[in-house]
Design goal:
Strand content: 15-25%
CATH topology of the largest domain: Rossmann fold
Shape: globular
Order of helices and strands: EHEHHEHEHEHEHHEEH
CATH class of the largest domain: Alpha Beta
Mean pLDDT: 95
Number of strands: 8
Helix content: 40-55%
Length: 217
């Protein structure tokens, strides 16, 4: 029986390489495919919120992925939570939000959590997700957030070392917490430079969850 085919649906080109690398490290047998619509982030910023038209686009992307043979779908952009929920309801295969596995891992680590993002529109979606998850479990959450837009600008220009340094500085400024979450898939490279405490990245948590879904040891 062939390994599962996992459709990775991206809104930013910067997410492609990091998540591919994590699959290569943690689950090289998975058959991964990539689908990219990089018009989604600017359209979200222009609209100011997730519109019905954006939701419909996510539903279309999920249905396309399913028809193309995906056994599961992983969306990799953190700013589109409600649209991904609608996409999940539209198909029969498992659909993962970018950060849901990471958020659960963070809550298992404690209640004092930090969140760093490099794409500002991700904050409302991520805060809503983790606050709802904490509330459903009766957890009183302390959440601190930082946005580092200069980091993603540096990464887009190929300055990975600067990107990682800016995120490490934001983490140091935030101070100790039970778990620090890096909210963009493109932030994976920064994790190694953050000192002290538990650091979680979306791709690592998501791949671990997918392996659990398909009972892969």
């Amino acid at each position: 029986m062939p390994a599962p085919r996992i459709a990775l649906v991206h809104a930013m080109p910067l997410a492609v390489e990091p998540v591919s690398r994590v699959f290569g490290e943690r689950w090289p047998q998975a058959r991964i495919t990539h689908l990219l619509d990089d018009s989604l982030p600017p359209d979200l910023q222009a609209a100011g919120s997730i519109t019905p038209a954006i939701v419909e686009r996510f539903v279309t992307l999920a249905r396309y992925s399913e028809k193309a043979g995906a056994d599961a779908i992983l969306f990799t952009c953190s700013a589109f939570g409600t649209a991904i929920e609608a996409a999940r309801d539209a198909v029969k295969v498992p659909v993962l939000k970018p950060n849901e596995a990471m958020l659960e891992e963070a809550l298992a680590a404690g209640t004092d959590l930090g969140l760093i993002v490099t794409f500002e529109p991700s904050i409302p979606s991520l805060k809503k997700e983790i606050e709802e998850l904490a509330s459903s479990r009766g957890i009183r959450l302390k959440l601190r957030t930082r946005t580092v837009p200069a980091a993603i600008a540096a990464l887009q220009q190929g300055r990975t070392t600067e990107h990682d340094s800016l995120i490490a500085a934001a983490a140091a400024d935030m101070g100790p917490c039970d778990a620090l979450m890096l909210g963009q898939f493109s932030m994976v490279s920064a994790a190694a430079g953050i000192r002290g405490g538990k650091v979680l990245t979306s791709p690592h948590s998501a791949v671990t969850r997918l392996k659990q879904i398909f009972d892969v040891r």
